[in-house]
């Protein structure tokens, strides 16, 4: 069972890493940020609710108060898409995903604020390693990139919204069916996206199959496969292992940007990527190892 959990979480995270390919392609064809987000969320909405209906799942199984909380939590997915895709309008996909990955340390802030749990020393070490990795991975250390300020801001905001999704989704109606829960979350996302981009609705070419192909592609790899695979695999393994496995989306996104989008990634940038991945391992396993060493010295 553990092996199945590892495979599902790994594939779910890797799937999200292919999102930039579809988003960048959409921008190259001239579609707007609003058009891409609306079509993506609508496709995910139809797919997940269709799956819920086929499974015979019913909303009344969930309390009304939880329905609102799930939808509100799902709105953070919509925000992540808006900020993350918006960052890719101004930055290379490889840089946008690195900024998204700041959720590693932003999650510490959320825990500190909402659970009153201050970060431990190992978490601060992880933060330093993460930020060092960001400097290298962004290309700022060698002055090789002129990064757009709005792109940087949107990229960081995507990290804040993604960290919010991870933090709150683990606390809301966790006993409900994962497909129904995902359907309600994407409903919250769709409502938010429509409200923000309501002026873009009349501009959507409804019969443009190319736009729908791109939207469905983004929906599958970004809003359907990851939550479903995580919901099926995460309960079978530890939370720490799930977080570490989820980091695979970073190298997948960068490698796909290199091979398919022809983006250049230098040796120093790769070194930064590996530092960010190392920070995730430190954050998840470092404290446990340090406590083990302390117990050994005491005994």
For this entry, give a set of tags.
EamA_dom; 13 helices; 0% strand; 299 residues; mainly alpha; single chain
Question: What does this entry look like structurally?
Answer:
By secondary structure, this protein is mainly alpha-helical. The protein has one domain (2-298). Helix content is 77%, strand content 0%. The chain is built from 13 helices and no strands. The protein has helices at 2-16, 19-28, 33-54, 64-90, 93-100, 103-115, 121-138, 149-169, 178-196, 209-233, 239-246, 249-259, 267-298. Residues 4-138, 150-282 form the EamA domain.
- Approximate strand percentage: under 5%
Order of helices and strands: HHHHHHHHHHHHH
Low-confidence stretches: none
Task: Give the averaged pLDDT, no decimals.
Answer: 82
Helix/strand/pairing category: mainly alpha
Helical percentage: over 70%
How many DSSP E strands? 0
Q: What is the terminal-to-terminal distance?
A: 35 Å
What's the main sheet like?
Answer: none
Q: What is Rg? A: 19 Å
Number of domains: 1
InterPro entries: EamA_dom (IPR000620), EmrE-like (IPR037185)
Transmembrane segments: 33-54, 66-85, 91-110, 122-141, 147-167, 179-198, 210-229, 241-261, 267-286
Pfam family, one: EamA
Domain EamA: 4-138, 150-282
